[in-house]
Design brief:
The structure holds two protein chains of two kinds.
Chain A: E1 10-12, E2 19-25, E3 35-40, E4 44-49, E5 54-60, E6 67-72, E7 78-83, E8 87-92, E9 99-105, E10 115-120, E11 123-129, E12 136-141, E13 145-150, E14 161-168, E15 175-181, E16 185-190, E17 195-201, E18 207-213, E19 218-223, E20 227-233, E21 239-246, E22 252-257, E23 263-268, E24 272-277, E25 283-288, E26 294-299, E27 310-314, E28 319-322
Antiparallel strand pairs in A: 1-28, 2-3, 3-4, 4-5, 6-7, 7-8, 8-9, 10-11, 11-12, 12-13, 14-15, 15-16, 16-17, 18-19, 19-20, 20-21, 22-23, 23-24, 24-25, 26-27, 27-28
Chain B: H1 2-7, H2 9-12, H3 19-39, H4 45-65, H5 76-99, H6 107-118, H7 122-136, H8 141-152, H9 156-169, H10 173-180, H11 183-186, H12 188-201, H13 207-218, H14 221-238, H15 241-246, H16 249-265, H17 268-291, H18 295-312, H19 324-333, H20 344-351, H21 364-371, H22 399-408, H23 412-428, H24 430-435, H25 437-446, H26 456-470, H27 472-483, H28 490-509, H29 534-558, H30 577-586, H31 602-618, H32 625-639, H33 645-661, H34 664-670, H35 672-688, H36 692-714
Helix pairs in contact in B: 3-5, 4-6, 5-7, 6-8, 6-9, 7-9, 9-12, 10-13, 12-14, 13-14, 13-16, 14-16, 14-17, 16-18, 17-18, 19-20, 22-23, 23-26, 25-26, 25-27, 26-27, 26-28, 27-28, 27-30, 28-31, 29-31, 29-33, 29-36, 30-31, 30-32, 31-33, 32-33, 32-35, 33-36, 35-36
Classes of the chains: A mainly beta, B mainly alpha.
Keywords (chain A): Repeat, WD repeat
Pfam families (chain A): WD40 (PF00400)
InterPro entries (chain A): WD40/YVTN_repeat-like_dom_sf, WD40_repeat_dom_sf, WD40_rpt
């Protein structure tokens, strides 16, 4: 008889709104405190102290509009946040400051989370949904210069981009962008030529989230239907479906592969978090704690594997923190 | 001189000769004799016949004169291959002569071949001849010619045996075509054997033989005309309602196979020429197959009709049955695409046996997976059994709520929840359920599937059973009266029967074995998919019980004990059996405008008969059992010559139930005459019925009767 699934390690309450974005920052040396950022529907970004489980600070920078993407740039002192006010803000949080130092006006009205990739010391690329319907823009940070604008061919009918993932193979190779679209297809873009390298229709419904493992050249995507799709990128830069996994209930809002590539977590519309082994997509656990749609899942970047945590933010205003499969 | 020596070989040959010596010796004799006839004018027919008889019957003659101590070379399994070798030798000789421009005749050799075959030694002689001739005729037209002669010169009276032998032993249709040539066109007898006897009159040959035969017909111009004729005749048989009703399932399967093979050989222009006829016979055939009450016959009809339809409608709409099992049939075949297109369904018969139960086939890759190191294995999964579909609405808590939702609500989610919850609600609150039992029964009987709810039929049935067992008398009265009333679909009427059986089963044994098992796996479930034919389940139960019973009777007889071990437990069905049984048996011969049991609704009649058999069995140890048995015997008597084998099977099950349930003394006192009548009918069925299951059941019944008789004889009077 298999063991019953574990309870949450602890639960963070008090955002007073649905939680849409989560981001750990736990990689710092002692005595730095491990931190979790959470972005809520009411526009606040909460900075959670994971030692005390209390809010250290609440940042208000998106005009009370929902914050749906958070990313740190080199540690916990610089934070990027994207909100429904069509802005991406860069926060300076060093030494107790809480000020927005820079911002980008995206002019995009969708829900597509952006993606950030560090290409060199002090140089980042950020992909975000652009102003036009089907367009993706890539900027260089911190200079904010536009690297390229990726537009599908005329008449491709892909719909809006729904999720983005910038990645880079082994050191020095070209950064590439994977983008999931409203019509259920995933496209691989070459940033330097601005051309599509490969297109794969892996869902019937919009692709809600995807993640990619650049070591194994294998990715996973979830949509509003009952299917998880696992696809791989071959030597000729072609995307191919490897297998699909059928879920009990429809709708996946977020997928994250743990940084050690052992397991992955999905956030389900059915209030449940699902854990799978990444190698063969073996179902491992179904974590049933939330009472409403789970919007976001994120793994911590703790240095020691046994400290690694999983956080899930849901519409029920709660953030559940789990400690699962930490011994492997 | 040759003849003289052949006529008394045992005396003229020294016993000292070794086996090998015998062998060579005979081989030469034969060669000389045969050679003689190849090159000379035929002598008198009588002498030739006498010699023929001697040669072919030599093993018997030797065996007789040596009183069974004949040398091994005269054993048929050695002798006839030897003879075959000699025939080959001579044919070689003929071939050289022909090449040298000499005239020869193979007629005597043909006679030998024919006579050996008619003596039943096809296997021995052809096992030598066929492989060699196959090789020799491969590229040599003189050898082909010799071979054709050889078979053409076989006298008509022996032709059948020779042709059968060749068709069964040729490794393929092309070889058969080389060996026989256009024999079927030239020889009437051969034509009859190939196009009629082997296809329409006999049905024991393997699929490979069928493929040989029909492939042979398809391989040459004049023969193709025969192929089309054969197809038409096959279709005629396939589409004849009398054949569907009266011929055994195995034969129908054989004919269907032949049709599919024929279809796969037909070419576009040929189809064009007979499209209309094909269409007509297909429509007729489909109709009478779908009318059958045996699921395997219906399935056969659908497979064949689909194949015909896809063959004749290359551009138009194609007949497609939305039946799961067909899809399964075909999907099993997807992996074996190398087989002939027309045969893909046939191969399915290997995987699914006739009853349609899939035989588990372990896919090849399953093995390899076992050895594959699963790298996720170090991650031990947690229990995921709670991961179920998310429900949007809450299940109703009161029976009256359910009634309200099922009768009036437009909310489909609520409706689904109500259907799912009803059974457990009824079981949990019997008192509340009794207040509204008949109303509930009515609602459930008329309940139709509004959404694609998985397992809807089963849920509804379970709820119906729950209602019936909670408040048996009024609900049984309601259901049995509805069975014979107007304006119900066949489905609803059969539902009523199923529910009565399941409830009777539950009532008769639930209490004795513990209360918890009311709807658990221990009760045989009736599946409602049309192809699974729930009656099979019932019959299986009855059969199993009969078997166990039979053994027990034997046992107790052997022990010298006279008492039958009847199951002794409180039977709740006791006071209710009559309420279930009599209303059902009353009105079967009263046709209504929408429902005619004795006419075209014979499928429901079959189900009714099976239901009565089960009710009868379950009524064991009840007060009403003797009266029930008597009524049922009369019912059986009235229907005993029914044309539908499904109905007859049910009737035979009824007889078994009666024999098992009614106490032996009562049987003999009250229904002696009926029993005797039944017995003679059973004997008749056991001998003559075309349906194998019927014969088996009748035998079983006779055995039961026999046991009963023995038991009464030994019982102290």
């Amino acid at each position: 008889m298999a063991q019953p699934p574990p309870d949450p390690h602890f639960v963070l309450r008090g955002t007073s709104a649905a939680v849409h974005a989560l981001r750990f920052s736990c990689g710092g040396e002692e005595p730095a405190v491990p931190i979790l950022f959470s972005g809520s529907e009411n526009g606040f970004i909460h900075v959670w102290n994971l030692k005390t489980h209390r809010v250290d600070a609440a940042l208000d920078g998106h005009g009370r509009k929902s914050v749906y993407w958070l990313e740190t740039m080199d540690g916990k002192d610089r934070l990027l946040s994207q909100g429904r006010d069509q802005r991406i803000c860069l926060w300076d949080l060093a030494e107790g400051r809480t000020s927005v130092t820079d911002s980008v006006f995206t002019e995009n009205v969708g829900f597509c989370r952006s993606s950030l990739l560090k290409v060199a010391q002090g140089r980042w690329l950020m992909a975000m949904a652009g102003k036009a319907l089907e367009e993706v823009q890539v900027l260089e940070l911190p200079s904010k210069t536009s690297v390229c604008t990726l537009k599908p061919e005329m008449g491709a009918k892909l719909g809006m981009p729904m999720c983005l993932k910038l990645w880079q193979g082994s050191c020095g190779s070209q950064p590439l962008l994977l983008a999931g679209y409203e019509d259920g297809s995933v496209l691989l873009w070459n940033l330097s030529t601005g051309k599509v390298l490969s297109q794969l229709v892996c869902h019937q419904e919009p692709v809600m989230s995807l993640d990619f493992d650049s070591e194994k050249a294998k990715g996973i995507s979830g949509s509003s239907e009952k299917v998880l799709s696992i696809w791989s990128l071959n030597e000729q830069q072609n995307l191919q479906v490897q297998k699909t996994h059928r879920l009990v209930n429809a709708g996946i809002s977020d997928i994250t592969i743990r940084p050690d590539k052992k397991i992955l977590a999905t956030a389900g519309w059915d209030h449940r978090i699902r854990i799978f082994g990444w190698k063969k997509l073996k179902p491992l656990a179904v974590l049933d704690y939330h009472t409403a749609t789970v919007h976001s899942v994120s793994f911590s970047d703790h240095k020691s594997p046994s400290d690694r945590l999983l956080a899930a933010g849901a519409k029920d205003h709660r953030i559940s923190i789990w400690s699962i499969y930490t011994q492997t | 001189a040759v003849e003289m020596r052949i006529s008394c070989p045992s005396r003229s040959l020294p016993h000292a000769l070794s086996e090998r010596g015998f062998f060579c010796c005979f081989f030469h004799y034969f060669c000389v004799v045969l050679y003689h006839f190849v090159h000379s004018r035929p002598g008198s027919a009588e002498r030739q016949d006498a010699l023929l008889g001697r040669i072919v019957c030599l093993p018997d003659l030797v065996g007789n004169s040596l009183l069974g101590r004949s040398p091994a070379v005269f054993f048929p399994q050695h002798y006839f291959p030897l003879l075959g070798g000699a025939v080959l030798q001579v044919l070689h000789n003929v071939s050289t002569s022909l090449r040298g421009g000499l005239d020869c005749s193979v007629s005597f050799v043909s006679h030998i071949l024919g006579k050996v075959c008619i003596h039943g030694r096809q296997k021995e002689i052809l096992s030598v001849l066929v492989p060699h001739l196959t090789d020799l005729t491969k590229s040599d037209c003189i050898w082909q010619r010799i071979c054709w002669w050889l078979v053409e010169c076989v006298p008509d009276r022996w032709m059948e045996a020779v042709v059968l032998g060749f068709v069964q032993r040729a490794p393929g249709a092309d070889v058969l075509s080389r060996l026989l040539g256009n024999l079927v066109v030239k020889n009437k007898k051969a034509q009859f054997v190939v196009t009629q006897k082997m296809l329409l009159l006999q049905y024991g040959y393997t699929t490979a033989v069928l493929q040989n035969l029909l492939g042979y017909l398809s391989l040459d111009g004049p023969r193709r005309a025969l192929l089309i004729k054969v197809l038409q005749e096959l279709l005629e048989t396939w589409g004849s309602s009398s054949a569907v009703k009266h011929s055994p399932v195995e034969q129908q399967q054989y004919i269907s196979k032949a049709i599919l093979i024929c279809l796969s050989h037909l070419k576009e222009p040929e189809i064009e020429s007979c499209r209309q006829e094909l269409l007509t016979s297909m429509m007729e055939g489909v109709k009478c197959h779908l009318e059958s009450s045996l699921p395997q016959i219906r399935r056969l009809g659908m497979i064949v009709a689909e194949s015909i339809s896809s063959k004749i409608n290359t551009d138009g709409p194609v007949l497609k049955f939305q039946v799961k099992v067909i899809v399964k049939f075909l999907s099993d075949q997807a992996a074996q695409s190398h087989i002939q297109p027309g045969l893909e369904c046939l191969q399915g018969w290997g995987i699914h046996n006739l009853l349609g139960q899939p035989v588990p086939v372990l896919p090849l890759w399953a093995n390899s997976c076992l050895y594959f190191v699963d790298s996720d294995d170090d991650l031990i999964p947690y229990d995921m059994s709670e991961d179920k579909e998310l429900k949007k609405t809450k299940a109703p808590v009161y029976i009256r709520d359910c009634i309200e939702i099922l009768t009036g609500s437009e909310d489909l989610d609520k409706w689904e929840e109500a259907v799912k919850a009803l059974e457990s609600l009824v079981r949990k609150n019997p008192a509340a359920a009794r207040e509204v039992s008949v109303e509930l029964a009515k609602i459930l009987l008329h309940l139709e599937e509004k959404t694609c709810l998985e397992g809807f039929a089963e849920l509804r049935q379970k709820a119906q059973v729950a209602v019936l067992t909670t408040d048996p008398i009024p609900v049984a009265q309601y259901l049995t009266s509805q069975f014979y009333s107007l304006n119900y679909s066949l489905r609803q009427r059969m539902d009523i029967l199923d529910v009565l059986v399941l409830a009777a089963q539950e009532l008769s044994c639930a209490k004795g074995r513990g209360k918890t098992k009311h709807s658990g796996a221990q009760n045989p479930r009736i599946q409602l998919l049309p192809e699974s034919g729930s009656s099979k389940d019932w019959r299986r139960i009855v059969d199993e019980r009969i078997k166990s019973k039979t053994r027990r009777l034997y046992f107790s007889f052997g022990q010298g004990q006279s008492q039958v071990e009847q199951p002794s437990r409180p039977n709740e069905f006791n006071s209710l059996a009559g309420h279930f049984f009599f209303p059902l048996i009353q009105n079967f011969d009263r046709p209504l405008s929408t429902f005619d049991l004795l006419g075209e609704d014979h499928f429901v009649l079959g189900r009714l008969v099976h239901t009565l058999a089960v009710l009868m069995y379950l009524a064991v140890n009840t007060m009403a059992v003797t009266a029930m048995g008597k009524a049922l015997l009369e019912f059986v008597w009235a229907l005993r010559f029914h044309t539908d084998s499904y109905v007859r099977q049910g009737l035979l099950s009824c007889v078994s139930s009666i024999l098992l349930s009614v106490p032996a003394e009562h049987l003999l006192q009250d229904v002696t005459e009926e029993l005797l009548e039944t017995r003679s009918w059973l004997e008749d069925v056991a001998e003559k019925d075309p349906d194998g299951d019927c014969r088996r059941l009748a035998l079983q019944n006779l055995l039961l009767m026999e046991n009963l008789k023995k038991k009464l004889e030994t019982a102290p009077s």
